[in-house]
Amino acid sequence: MASRVHLLLSLILFSLFSLSSPLSSETIFDAVKILADSGYVSMSLTLEAISKSTLLTNSTSLTIFAPSDPAFIHSGQPSLSLLQYHFSPLLSPLQTLRSLPNAAKIPTLFVGHSLTVTTSPTDDGISLNNIKITRSPIFNQGFLVIFGVDEFFHPDFEVSVPVKSPEPNLGCGFPTANDTTSFSGTSSFGKVSGLLGCSGYSVMSEFLNGFCFFWLSDILMAS
Fold first, then answer.
1. Domain shared by 43 and 125, yes or no
2. Range of the domain at 80
3. What is the pLDDT of residues 67-95, one digit of tens each?
4. pTM
5. Co-location of 107 and 188 in the same domain
6. In Å, what is the CA distance from 174 to each residue of 97, 148, 187, 196, 214?
7. Could you tell me how far CA 188 lies from the centroid of its own chain?
8. Between the CA of residue 21 and those of 25, 60, 147, what are the distances in Å?
9. Residues 190, 101: one domain?
C-alpha cells in the first residue's frame, strides 16, 4: 500500500513539475561533471554536446539511463532516437523504480517507445529491458536523476506476457449491456484505468485509480 501511495504522489508531483521551468544549465553542468568523475566519460561528453538542444531545453524533469563507456565503444555513438530512448520525462528516483511491478512501462522521449520493467521478485537490483541499472543513482539533484547501465537499451525489446482468460467487469474491455454503476464518472475512470493496466501501462493506471479514489471520497464527504 505504501509503495502505491508513493507512486501516486510521484506521478502527481511529476504532473505539477511539468508546469515548471526547464532544467537549469547549472544542474546539467553538475551532471556532466559527475558523470565524468564516475567513469561515464562518453555519456558525459554526449550530455554536454546536447546541453543546448531541445532534448534538454524543453525538459522540466528527466531520468537518464547512462550507458557505460564500454557500451559506447561496442556500439559507437548512438543515433538521436536511440539516445532519446535512454531519457524518460518521468522523474523516477530509486524508490519509485523499486515500487514498479514487473512489465510496467516507463515512458521515454523516443516517441512510441517505452522501457519495460523486468525486475523479478527475487532480484536484488532493478532491471529494465532485461538490463540491470546501477543500485543507486549516479546523479540525483532537483529534477534530474541519472542511473548507469552496462548496455544500450534495445528499442525492439518485447516481453512475453501470458494470456489470461477475460474476467467480467475488470476494465479490460468494453462494458456489456449488463454493466451498471452508481457513479458514471467512477465507471469511466475505471474503464480507462483498466484498459491502461491491461495494455501494460500500469503506472498511469495506478494514477487514475488513485485519482478516482480521492475524487469519490470528496463526493461522499460532501453528501
1. yes
2. 2-149
3. 999 999 999 989 999 999 999 999 999 99
4. 0.65
5. no
6. 31, 41, 11, 13, 24
7. 24
8. 12, 6, 23
9. no
